[in-house]
Amino acid sequence: MTLRRRILAALARRPALGTATLLAPGGLWLVLFFVVPMLLMLGASVMQRGTYGGVEPGFTLEHYRRFLDPLYLQVLWRTIVWAALATVACLLLGFPVAWVIAASRRHRSLLLFLVVLPFWTSFLVRTFAMIFLLRDTGVINSALLALGVIREPIALLYTPFAVLSGLVYGFLPFMVLPIYASLEKLDPALLEAAEVLGARPLERLARVAIPLARPGIIAGSLLVFVPAMGSFLTSDLLGGAKQVMIGNLVQNQFTTARNWPFGAAASFGVMAVVLVAVMVSLRLRDRDPGRVR
Amino acid sequence: MLPYAPARRYLRLNSVPLAQFLRVSKSFGAIRAVDAVSFDIARGEFLSLLGPSGCGKTTTLRLLAGFEEPDDDGGDIRIGGISAIGKRPYDRNLGMVFQSYALFPHLSVERNVAFGLERRRVRGAELTRRVADALLAVQLDPKEFAGRRPAELSGGQRQRVALARALVLEPEMLLLDEPLGAIDEKLRRDMQLELRQLNRKLGITFVHVTHDQDEALTMSDRIAVMHRGRIVQLGTPAEIYEHPRTRFVATFIGESNLFDGEGGARVAVRPERMALAGPGEPLPDGYRSLPGTIDDVIYQGEMLRVLVRLEGNRQCVVALRNDGQLARPLPWAPGSAVLVGWKPEDARPLEEE
Asked: What is the distance in angstroms between the Cα of B340 and the nearest Cα belonging to chain A?
């Protein structure tokens, strides 16, 4: 028997071995580059701060205590609110888009292509482009001035609106794609059945389409909320110094402030919020055992 | 006269049509799916739209339901004497059973059946009672099934829930789009009879789409045979089977042997109306006859099908009742030279299509 056939025979006898073989490369990768760094950061968050960055041995919970200071909790709260607002905005904008794509027969591929088209450029470049759009001499203000709608430029850049716009723009595809995947599986006959039974358009949406698209809506919301919670680039470039998000705080602690332990503790604060969000979502998803597919 | 009983029923019911198609046309792009179709639907009847796939039967049903609108200048659809053009499905007082049942997978059986009542603001004890009654009417025990999800039901049970969901609103008309396509043979036979009985019992008009000719013959008061967007023949099952108007009807519903009749017109003869005479045997007096050779004898239980090769290399089928011939020495077998024949009055002249 050749070695190849011997291996195949061994795998056929023990299916678990096959599963393990498939999982091993990805699993090792995750352990090395996800679990280990996480443990390192967890360690750092309870150690002493080094004078020039890094950490010094010792155990303390002072960094977590410091994070509970109202100053930082306010940043965390702002981050949660913005991430939640961005998620809701993406849902409101993304659901109709996903609906149209799922309903279209002929242009489906083209529309899906357009949804992912922004990914062809780096997020950094696209966020810079938004500066050109939003600043006092930018495209929006120039156009409004030229049309005579306004006399003075309106302050758009370095406002919460700018940050929110950036977040929504950046994460919208992550909302559209999972909702599209759910709606695409929705049997059109279900909507017709609802119509014969007397459901008006909004009732068909609320009673049939949305409940059946729920897995997609929840997945999309998580895919927007979680990265929005950790984003720092958008608020850095579009929000200015006054609109700090928790991501900016963490980044600062590791760079200019050289307070690694506090940065690590703040990261775990964010992670706690994200974990709660994920658990709530899973609970929402599993609440109804009759969910489809 | 028994086979003609539905005809009398139809005549009795036909005094006031419940719905009418008046030269209705519907095109999708360049394709004319329904082409100037006119027919009446009698109050209380069981009407089947029968035809091969792509013949326009489903589009016709969807026009009646209101999911499709006729073309501009595409005729008129009347329900209860009033034009239904522009009326949404829920304003047409009809129920529908879909091919895939279209039960709401996220709702229990009870909530599925209650869906239409809830849209009509029926609440509380009345809602519960009417849902339970509807489930009982389709032979589902509410106690056992009310809480189940569609995914936890068999195909036949889903079919019943879909029926209950449509019937609970007490519509004038029930539209059925290939409702038995997805269930197995044995159950399908039972459901055919059950649907027929529901139609009789409730007095609701049933309009049923199918490509299965046996099903249409079994269930319907009348059958509209559709082909290429048109109704080629409309009549009782017996009329359609006994007097097919065109070659398409003669061969799509049941089986027919086609011969050239007197004066060059084509005639159709059903296999069971054909006679067979072995070598040297005569056919009964007055029969038309043709010589041929037996290709094959197919045993089908209650019938024997004898395939006979005629002159000109055409094949015809003679169906004989199985009265035990095969146990006796037969004067014919594959390869025998035989005569096939039929009574002139059993030959149906066909119109040009």
From this structure: 51
